[in-house]
Amino acid sequence: MIDALKTYYPLALLLENLDLVKSSYFYHRSQAKLPDKYADLRVMLKDIFIESRRTYGYRRMHDVLKKRHIVVSEKVVRRLMKEKKLIVRSVTKKKYSSYAGEITPATPNLIQRAFKAEVPDEKWLTDITEFRISAGKVYLSPIIDCFDGAIVSWTISTQPNAELVNSMFDQALATLADNSKPIIHSDRGAHYRWPGWIERIKTNGLTQSMSKKGCSPDNSACEGFFGRLKNEFFYGFKWDNISIDAFIELLDDYLHWYNNKRIKLSLGGLSPIDYRTKLGLIA
Do 29 and 42 sit in the same domain of this protein? Predict the structure, then answer.
């Protein structure tokens, strides 16, 4: 601003009115003429952000840089991301509910919001979430492992029926070792009180756990997954010209990416699959 006005007003007058020291003005002017030492980093940050599907905040971006042996502070990463407008979307919407009343006796809440597990297949969480696009409604039913947040299995359908949850459950059960008998925790939705669901639990020796009525914090780890999923994949995008089949394919692709590529700082900057590989749990 000073450079633009100093052709009309004396520099001393401008500095006095802006309460700016002369030496400070000349310092910042000289700095502005220097090459941008972060030019390459700015390009790299943008590339990483796009590769992350625009989902990584400055902490995960910093972790990726660290793995590439690039030494820079989190503060600098945060500032450069702000300057480049590399902003992660964040939206909160009303959740889908499948509650249909107390149609069968509810089982106790055995999880008690203790969403940490020492080993895989110790505690599983499940729920259903809904996506509304112009072409119609789509429902996702996943099982989340409390050990590392991995998605054990999932099904996607246009109908929130018994087949949606039972087929997902069958896929998850097929992954279990003979000695693995996880607690399977859900809300009090009708799907988890129908005979098919209950019979699968009994037949496979699992233990059922349910949240208190209308108490979403009792399954907050699963709710948190849905929140991340929708902020990263769904909200802020235009779905007007996307068919149901195309949407399902894109959602399925995201879920594979989530398991295999999306890093979590709680896992040392690894994806769930990479984390299990590092621990020798999978080949």
Answer: no
Look-up of token digits 């943008």: 46
Rounded to 5 degrees, φ, ψ at 228 are -65, -45
pTM, rounded to two decimals: 0.76
Whole-number CA gyration radius for the chain: 25
132 sits in which H/E element: strand 129-133
Q: Tell me, yes or no, whether 172 and 59 share the same domain.
A: no
Residues 19 and 149 in one domain: no
> Quick one: 242 and 196 in the same domain?
yes
- Residue-wise pLDDT tens digits, 93-130: 656 555 455 556 778 999 999 999 999 999 999 999 99
| pLDDT tens digit sequence for 7-40 | 666 766 656 666 767 667 556 666 666 677 888 8
Helices 162-173 and 195-203: angle between axes, nearest 10 degrees: 10
